[in-house]
Amino acid sequence: MTVSIGSHVLGGGNPVYVIAEIGLNHNGDVELAKQLIDVAARAGANAVKFQKRTPDIATPEHMRDTRRETPWGTMTYLQYRHRIEFGLDEYVEIGDYATLSGLDWFASPWDVPSVDFLESLGVVAHKVASASLTDTALLEALRATGKPVLLSTGMSTIEQIDRALSVLGTDRVILMHATSTYPMEPEEANLKVIATLRDRYAGIPVGYSGHERGLQISLAAVALGAVAVERHITLDRTMWGSDHAASLEPGGLEHLVRDIRVIETALGDGVKRIYPGEFAPMAKLRRIPA
C-alpha cells in the first residue's frame, strides 16, 4: 500500500520521504524557523515539521508549575510553553515560507483544538507524536480530517499501537518506528522492529523517526526498508533547548539526504544480472566460460 503526502508517494518503492523536524528548535523565533526551513530546502529534504500545542490543554498537570531556567529568565513550565508557541500569524508566515521553498509542511498537534488550528491552515498531513499515541480523542479528530497521518510508535507497546490503529484506521497511515530517548543510544534503536511492524501491519508503510547522534542508524533504517526518515534539525547542537542535542546540524542533514539517495540507488531491484562493467573483468579473470 502507498500513502500520498502532497505530491509525494510513500511506499511502493518510491524515494524515501525525508522530514526535517524543526519541532520547537525555533525557540519561539520566526526568523530562526525560517533559517531552519532554508537548511531543509538546501539539503534536499521533502518536508519540514513543527509541533502545535494549546499549552493550557497539552501541558501535563504535574508539570505546569515546575520552574525552568530559560533564556528569558526563570519561569514555570506552562509559562515556557506559552512563550515558545507560535500563533496564527506566525504559522501563516512560516507555512507560506516553507511552501515557497518547495517543501511540504505539517505539524504534530498535541490536542484537539490544535488539529482544528492546523486544518484551518491547509496542512498536507498530520503527525502523531509518540507521547500522543494513547490520546484517543486526538486520534479520532485526526481520523476525521481525512488527511494522511504519520504515527510515531516510541514509548508504546504493540497492544497500544493496535488500539491506536483501530481508531485511526489503516488506509492513510504511515507507522514511524521510534525510540523516545533524547539522544538515543544505538543499543536502544532496535531497527529490526521496522520489519516487525511491516509484518504485523501488512500494507501499512513503515518509516523511521530518529533521535540519535550521527547518521548511521537512520541510514541503516533506509537499508532495512524505511519509506520515510524524520530527524530533528538545528543550526547548532549547543543551542538552548531540550531537542538540540539530538538534532542534525545543516551539514549533517545534507549528508543524510545525500547518503539516503545513494542507498536507494544501491539497493536496486533485486534482479540478479551481469552489469556491463563486469564484462571486461569476466573476460580477463574467468578461466572456464559458462
Question: What brief labels describe this structure?
Answer:
single chain; 290 residues; 12 strands; 8-stranded parallel β-sheet; globular; TIM Barrel; 11 helices; alpha/beta; two-stranded antiparallel sheet
CATH fold name, please? TIM Barrel
Global Rg? 21 Å
Count of all domains:
1
Element-level helix/strand string: EEEHEHEEHHEHEHEHEHEHEHH
Q: How much beta, percentage-wise? A: 15-25%
Give the mean pLDDT. 95
Q: What structural category characterises the helix and strand content?
A: alpha/beta
User: Care to count the β-strands?
Assistant: 12
Q: Report the uncertain regions.
A: none
CATH architecture: Alpha-Beta Barrel
- Strands of the widest sheet, in order across it, are 7-4-3-12-11-10-9-8
- What is the assigned CATH homologous superfamily? Aldolase class I
Helix proportion: 25-40%
Q: What form results from the Cα inertia axes? A: globular
Question: Can you offer a commentary on this structure?
Answer:
It is a single chain. This protein is α/β, with parallel strands linked by helices. It is 38% helix and 19% strand. It has eleven helices and twelve strands. The strands form three sheets. An eight-stranded parallel sheet has the order 7-4-3-12-11-10-9-8. The chain has a two-stranded antiparallel sheet with strand order 1-2. Strands 5-6 form a two-stranded antiparallel ribbon. Helix 6 links the parallel strand 8 (126-128) and strand 9 (149-152). The protein is globular. InterPro entries: Aldolase_TIM, PseI-like, PseI/NeuA/B-like_N. This is N-acetylneuraminate synthase. Residues 36-272 form the PseI/NeuA/B-like domain. One of its GO terms (molecular function) is N-acylneuraminate-9-phosphate synthase activity.
